[in-house]
UniProtKB/TrEMBL annotation:
It comes from the Eukaryota. This is DNA-directed DNA polymerase. It comes from Lottia gigantea.
Amino acid sequence: MFFQPLPAKDKITFTNRIGKKETGTKIRFRNGFCHDGLTSVDIQEIVKAGGRIIKILDGIVYEENFKTPPYRDYILILRDLRNKYKREGNITTSRHLWSEATLKANNDSHVINYEKVNDSQFIVKINEEEKEFDCTPPKSIRLTPSHLGSFVLSHSKKIMNNFIHVIDGFYKPEIYFTDTDSLYISSSNWDKLNEAGLVSENDYCKGKNDYGDGGIIFGLYLVPKVKYNIILTSDGVLKEKKTFKGYSNDKISVEDYIRLASGHDVTNEFKKPWVKSFTNGVVIPDDKQKKVFRSYLNLVKRRT
């Protein structure tokens, strides 16, 4: 069974199950095409009906091509480089290693310096000197292999399945919420994970409690990337932790989560993103844009 296959799709002509020629899009592997696939719901139904998962492989099949998994060493190299650049104060290079946005582009000499005020505002010092710009597109240089993201994601899913299997999460409702690399479960399962050797603060591919000796006492999980938690710290202090993809945390209140859970739409206004160009440097628009999160989308996603 393969989870998260290589997300490369080709439009091809093939012979379908009844022997007729058909043109469509197929997921491509190294040595052929994926004829059919199962969703996570399909897999759960098969397991509930008595089916067994004999073996879980990574999304990209390397067992016949490589003697050792290539992604592990690569990720360790990136981790060491990131720590090295952080120690040297080279934040620009450190962020580019992990594909995070950097406001000061290497080819934009208009921006002299920038200082972060909060999550959505920066103080920018711009060079007003007039000069001639070379508008020749720079050569695209990829420092990481294009399929690295597939390796990382499929490897993460494989690790997550190990945790789910130990707490019997495939059969019992032990998981409240899940993301690419996190599980929201009861603290009663912690001993099971520890006995299975899946818990460590520093080891690679091991789990840890992000809240230390504390934990979540209230959680509102609406859709993927949209959740609200109240945390009780080890010092007995209550804190809130908000996640709302597409919105800034300072623009979202607990009332918005309650409205969405109650079937109402959530609307907010935001400043439009900065625009960078060779001629004008960084341009900060004055007008705003409106984002609406529809409650019916929330209900549809929760039902599926």
